Amino acid sequence: MTKVWFVTGSSRGFGRRFVEAALGRGDAVAATARDVDSLTDLTRTYGDAVLPLALDVTDRSAVFAAVQRAHDHFGRLDVVVNNAGYGLFGTVEEITEEQVRAQLETNLFGTLSVTQAALPHLRAQGSGHIVQISSVSGVVAFPMLGGYHASKWALEGLSDALAQEIAAFGIKVTLVEPGGYATDWAGSSAVFAAPLPAYDGLRAGMFSGGAPEVADPAAAGAALLKIVDAEEPPLRVVFGRQPGGLVAHVYGERLKTWSDWAELSAEAEQPLAAPDPAPVSADSGAPASVAREAVATAG
Length: 299
Fold this sequence. Notes:
Helix 1 (13-24) links the parallel strand 1 (4-7) and strand 2. The chain has a 7-stranded parallel β-sheet, with helices on both faces. A two-stranded parallel sheet has the order 5-8. Helix content is 45%, strand content 14%. It has a single domain, classed as NAD(P)-binding Rossmann-like Domain (Rossmann fold, 3-Layer(aba) Sandwich), CATH 3.40.50.720. The chain is an alpha/beta fold. The protein is built from 10 helices and 9 strands.
């Protein structure tokens, strides 16, 4: 059975690979990009199977209109891929508040808008798959990428909670965590903070080995097809061989640190004293402390 996709950031990089893979096997795609002219070749090749839509994901009203138009056009939505995003480079001291806010507007709030716009349609049909393009940088952290990490770590937590909230509606969620790929993430779409001389040594050390090794994104589309076709797709999956080793190392270090400091963790917890017996309300028969306990538990 063919699927209907809604993909953001379809003009290049992973987004283009995902769209081409879906269309290539006969699926239908609502492909979005800020410059809709970048999608002309898709319509020329695939005709009515592709619906090109101009969209800046930071425009929330435009997001809802685009999702509605895609649903009206195709009659349903099966796979929603939140791929639009870019990289912000600079130390935490170097990046500006405006740069971080813009990073979050695209990488986090843009994804939130698309997800919220699509959910009513997916719930109504009792099925669907939301694919969030995260990054290995949503799990581990590196110098010079604090603002980018902030957006992807937030996306990871948001999507993990989302998966638990919508499972009962028959909707799946997958976080794709790629390593280094030859996309435009660090190219023309990237933003670089003004450098401070204090971090010149850090920069020199990071790039002393030359350009980092990156993978060809050609296989990413076929890999995503297997995920969306799986009966039980993963909540998280890394793309590429590099991230697996990084994640295993980082999580191992975290578990070791938590274990090494377990005694102090226990010291930080002091059991609450047993409360006095609560009076009973003559009106309801319920303890007067119920509200206080509810607030304390929530806190």
